[in-house]
Specification:
Elements (H helix, E strand, L loop, with lengths): L9 E11 L5 E10 L3 E5 L6 H8 L7 E6 L8 H4 L2 E4 L11 H11 L4 H14 L15 H13 L5 E5 L7 H16 L3 E5 L3 H7 L2 E6 L2 E7 H6 L6 E6 L5 H5 L4 E7 L2 E6 L5 H8 L6 E7 L3 H9 L9
Parallel strand pairs: 3-7, 3-8, 5-6, 6-7
Antiparallel strand pairs: 1-2, 1-4, 8-9, 10-12, 10-13, 11-12
Helix pairs in contact: 3-4
């Protein structure tokens, strides 16, 4: 994780990148840069364009407009570019009738690794990922979490200069998630750049240098994580457990409320700077006991996204 990347040369530079699908979904006019050792997060609700953007950058989908340069090379499909990319997309590309180790060996061979070097790296990664005992098991018998771990092994085996990771902690247990965070931090310190799509705000705040918020296919805010969090300085995030439903417009009309979202019987509120949670509680419970429980915490990146869009990020584990 780098403190300052503004003056660093870009390993990746994308300008005006777009990819549209029927129905109006896709990504539109995305511009971003990624420097060596930098960790850049893409955050947004499902359908906001995170996976589409990663697929375009990984050359798994073609852009309808815009330019991309990898390592100064304007041809992203160049073999010299692909050899330096490690990719983990939302959908695994595995051979179910082959073992986990055979799958990983196939990927290692695609990147020019063979013999003892490939074996040493794969052995280390399979042990790190907790897949050593399952290395000779057919991938078709793997759980989702095991398949995601195998994706990570395949993305890391050739020691790429850039990692493109789509929801890398999805389906991982807590121990595996901590191991992944530690590895990404070490890789960043040694110069590997990481572009990851995630809605895990704790992961993003822990390892990302910068974050781009995507909403309806467009980048609506970009910044260094500490700078983004200062926009919420003095605010509070309040979670209310409701005894009965309450209209969202009623919540948003309260003077102390900057943003609000309802998820079942739980209400999430971002309070205005300096506002007291008791003010909201007093109004809601003024005529009836609407609130059964209240929890107050420090606001995070998810609360900033809610404030900007009125839409909450999906809840993730962790």
């Amino acid at each position: 994780m780098k403190a300052n990347t503004a003056s660093e040369p870009s390993l990746l530079a994308a300008t005006g990148l777009s990819r549209s699908y029927r129905g109006g979904k896709g990504v539109f006019d995305i511009t971003l840069k990624l420097a060596a050792g930098e960790v850049l997060g893409l955050m947004g609700p499902n359908g906001s364009g995170k996976s589409t953007l990663l697929r375009v950058l990984a050359t798994a989908a073609t852009a309808s407009a815009g330019r991309v340069s990898w390592f100064g090379n304007p041809n992203p499909r160049s073999p010299s570019v692909r050899r330096r990319l490690g990719v983990m997309l939302d959908q695994a590309a595995h051979f179910d009738k082959m073992t986990g180790y055979q799958n990983a060996w196939f990927f290692a061979r695609q990147f020019g690794l063979a013999g003892e070097l490939a074996r040493d790296r794969l052995d280390e990664l399979f042990r790190w990922a907790g897949l050593w005992e399952a290395r000779d098991q057919l991938v078709g018998e793997y759980s989702l979490g095991m398949q995601r771990k195998l994706n990570l092994v395949e993305a890391l085996v050739h020691r790429p200069s850039i990692l493109l990771l789509d929801e890398p902690t999805l389906a991982l247990d807590y121990r595996a998630e901590l191991d992944l965070i530690e590895r990404l931090q070490l890789l960043s310190l040694t110069g590997t750049a990481v572009l990851l799509a995630t809605n895990d705000v704790h992961l993003a705040e822990r390892i990302c240098d910068r974050v781009i918020f995507l909403h309806q296919g467009r980048a609506i805010r970009e910044g260094h994580v500490p700078e983004l969090l200062t926009e919420l300085a003095g605010s509070k995030e309040v979670q209310l457990q409701m005894n009965s439903p309450i209209p969202l417009d009623t919540l948003r009309s309260l003077p102390a409320v900057e943003a609000a979202n309802v998820d079942g019987d739980t209400v999430h509120i971002v309070l205005a700077r300096g506002a007291n949670p008791a003010q909201v509680l007093a109004v809601l419970n003024g005529t009836a006991d609407l609130v059964s429980n209240m929890r107050v915490r420090r606001p995070n990146l998810g609360d900033l996204f809610l404030k900007l869009t009125g839409e909450a990020l999906p809840v993730t584990h962790g």
